[in-house]
Amino acid sequence: xxxxxxxxxxxxxxxxxxxxxxxxxxxxxxxxxxxxxxxxxxxxxxxxxxxxxxxxxxxxxxxxxxxxxxxxxxxxxxxxxxxxxxxxxxxxxxxxxxxxxxxxxxxxxxxxxxxxxxxxxxxxxxxxxxxxxxxxxxxxxxxxxxxxxxxxxxxxxxxxxxxxxxxxxxxxxxxxxxxxxxxxxxxxxxxxxx
Length: 194
Fold this sequence. Notes:
Helix 3 packs parallel to helix 8 (169-192) and helix 5 (101-107) packs parallel to helix 6. The protein has eight helices and five strands. The chain has a five-stranded parallel sheet, sandwiched between helices. The protein is of the alpha/beta class.
């Protein structure tokens, strides 16, 4: 396969996975409603993930605190991936598995939402963050891939699982970005109207 053909295959594969991901429209709408209801009720959205998923968590928080496509008031969102002092202190003193959970326990309240992002569904620190969110009576919106990993079995009624229908990390991340943009658009639509 030539390099050009290989590049074209990347586009074809991405399109196919995104078409399959349209099947997530119903739970995605539920996630938009859960997040919007939390924000209307003076809640906040906490987001976490590792690597590219950390960047996705930051991207989502930035779209809520800033704006997506429409001007609106600031929305309460915090990416738990950005404070290097907290991450390194907690990682050093308690282990990397605790870097998000301790922040969730410190900042999360009943009625808040945790956006937990893990392409494999098996990230130990994201799993611990979900457990902390459940203890704080928060709703969890989980973005995963593959078969949902361990995270899939942790979710309870009221939580929302958005599992990208792919096995390759690149394809999962591409779907996650689309899901995040759909969340932002849906939240704005619910807050501002069409």
